Structure formats: structure tokens, C-alpha cells
Amino acid sequence: MRAAVIALGKIGLPIAAQLTNTGHTVVGCDIDPAVVATVNAGRAPFPNEAGLDEALASAVAAGRLRATTDTATAVAEGPDLVIAVPPLVVDHEGRPDWTALDSVTADIGRGLRAAAAAGHRGTTVAIETTLPVGTTRTRVAPGLAAASGLTPGVDFHVVFSPERVFSGRILQDLATYPKLVGGLDDAGEQRGVELYRAFLPDVEIRAMGGAEAAELTKLAETTYRDINIAFANELARHADSLGVDVQRVIDAANSQPFSHIHRPGVAVGGHCIPVYPRFYLAGDPEAQLPATARHVNEAMPAYAVSVLQQLLGGLEGERVLILGVAYRGGVKETAFSGAMPLRDNLRARGALPVAADPLYDAEELRALGFEPWDGMPLRGAILQADHAEYARLQPTDLAGVRAIVDGRGLLDPAPFAAAGIAVRRLGGGAA
After folding, report:
1. Which of 10, 29, 179, 218 is flagged as catalytic?
2. Residue 29 a catalytic site member
3. What are the structural domains, with CATH classification, of the chain?
4. Which residues contact 406 (CB under 8 A, 6 or more apart)?
5. DSSP code string of 321-359
6. 266-321 pLDDT, tens per residue?
7. pTM
8. Catalytic: 272?
9. How far is 393 from 414, CA to CA, in rounded Å?
């Protein structure tokens, strides 16, 4: 199989690697020349994706992978499969900016037109970027048709196949979870299933009976997680008011097979869980649970600040360290990170927030709107990202700190208690 993968980010590039791992030939496309150069050198342009560097080095050396900034020309070569994962930028209300998707759609369409002129028809275009329900049929397919002058379902096929992977272990997840494929018609969907099966031989390739079903499934699984986390967060706040350890409660509840309560935390960040419930609500505005869950989860940074304020007896003029600006440990991404609302809530209460993160240097922190911590004495701290480094924190690492809110349940409180430093885990059992 010959394939093109559009947008060589944290999803697209591992997909390209998986294609080459199973013997197929890939042209990778990205608008960033630096990304293209790095991939052509056989390296990943981002860290901490297990197995990716090795796969890229092997694929480039074997001639199975090359990268380019010219998407239309890559598609004009007539690949069997085009997988597009353009970033969909959204605001905090989940309203999409369609610029990247529309631009990629137009580039692919121009490539399809050139391929058809050269006698190559029948390419299947698969969109893996998570979308509001109906987008594949009402936006992507018409955009491809307009740019190509061709007819979907006749000259080319369009399917939606949502990514279902976790940063840091994407190659593993691609080989583990069922792959969902939904088309605009039966013939296109079956062709999509056939092509995905060719490079994901060890997992179920599930035909969904339509693009809308595949789109809704992705929104359902991510919205479920947001609702579940919101319930865990409400349990944590209630447990604090009762003086009960919520982790003990959740572990006990989950000891029978019908309970699967997630873990509470200071924030729900990332490109997925804070965003896709908004996509769901765009199609089902009367739904109550997704809207309520978003409200609950978005309130957790303010709750963490209130816990620290209570521990310290006030925050006015106090220097407070935010530990971690990444949205989760080990991933250099700040999409919807809890660090931003923590910073803003601390400032609103008169505190002087500073930040540290093992993945970001001082210049990068300033660019994100944070004052880097330079080792100056502190009064309090809030652990926001569960970086592995933070599990090894000791009292001597945080000069002057009198109280820490552990927003991820990562710290061993014993050495801090011995040093006279209060550590409060959210839901840890004290009001």
C-alpha cells in the first residue's frame, strides 16, 4: 500500500511509523519545514513517544518514509490511502477554528484532481482529527469535492476514523484498541476497513455504518471520561467536608465490577477531554450531564487555591509555586493546562504565583505567561502536573514552603510532615 499522512504531529507521525512498520510506503506531509527536515533525518520532532525514534530511523533508512511540505503533490502521486490529522484549534467554549482543516482539505482536493488527471482514481481519504458530528459529511467531503472537481463515492472515498490513543504510548495503543471506521456510503466504508486492516493486522477494524456513528463514538468515550472525572471531583470535595479519604472510598467502590470511578484532580487538561464534550454539546445542546461536568471540572483549580488559602491562613502577598505547567506528566503540552487558571486564581487572591516545570526552561515559561521560580523562598505550592520528578520531591527542594496542595496525589506526605510542612491531597479528608 502507498499512503500519505498529513500533519506529522503527535498522532500523525506515529501513524506513519505504524504504516512503515507493516511494510507500506508513506509520504508524510507537514507545513513546518523544520518538522519535515527532522523526519527526513529519521528522528521525531518531539520527545517521549515510546518506540517512535527507532521506527522512524528504520523507515527512513529503508526508503519507506519521506516527508515533504507539499501535500497536494504527495496526494497527486495517487496513494491508496490518505490519512489527515490536521490540528483543530478551539477556544475555551469549544468553538473550532476550521482554518487548518479547510486548508488541508483544499490541498488534498487539489492533489486528487491532479491524480485523476494522471489516471489515478479511487484514493480513500481518512480523517482522524476528532470532529463535531456531521463534519465529515457536511464539511470535509464537500470541501474535497470543490477543490478536486471530483465526486465523493465515485472518484474517491471519504471515511472518518477517530484516533483512540494516548501520548507516550501511541504505537502500543494502535496495536491494542479496535479501530473504528465510518464512511459516507457502504462501499467507501468497506474500502476504509480494508485499508486500515492492511496496517493494523492485530486489532479489530470495526465498521460503524456511517461517518456520523464513528464521530459520535469518539465524542461519547471522551465525554464519558469528563463526566466520570467530574463525579470523582465532587466526591473529593464532599470527602474533604466530611473528613473522609476519597481515595479509600473510590478504591472500595471500585472493588466490585459495576463501579469504575476515575480519580479526582486539580484540572482536566489536554486536547481531548476538555474539548470534545463541547463538540458533543454543539450537536445536543439540551444535554445536561456534559455541561455540568465541564462546570465541575473547570472549578477545580479555584478549589485547589481555596484549600491552599485555608492552609496558609491567607494568600495576600505570598509567593506560591505552581509545580508543572504541562497539562500532564511527561508531556510537553499546555493545552487547557490547569496551570493557567491556578495562576489567575492565585493572582485574584493577592498571591504572587511563580512556576517551574522540568520540561520548560525559564524563557519558555515566560512565553506562556508565568514568572519562573528562581529558587527564591516560597510560602506555598500547588502540584499541578504529575511529572515523575515530582514524586521525588523533598522538603529541602522547596525553600520556605509551609503548605502544599497535591493536586495529583503524587507526594509522600511523611517527609514533609516531619519538616513541619502540611501536604493536602484533594479529597484527602480534611476540610
Report:
1. 218
2. no
3. 2-210 (3.40.50.720), 245-431 (3.40.50.720)
4. 383, 413, 423, 424, 425, 426, 428
5. EEE--SSSTT----TT-THHHHHHHHHHTT-EEEEE-TT
6. 999 998 999 999 999 999 999 999 999 999 999 999 999 999 999 999 999 999 99
7. 0.93
8. yes
9. 12
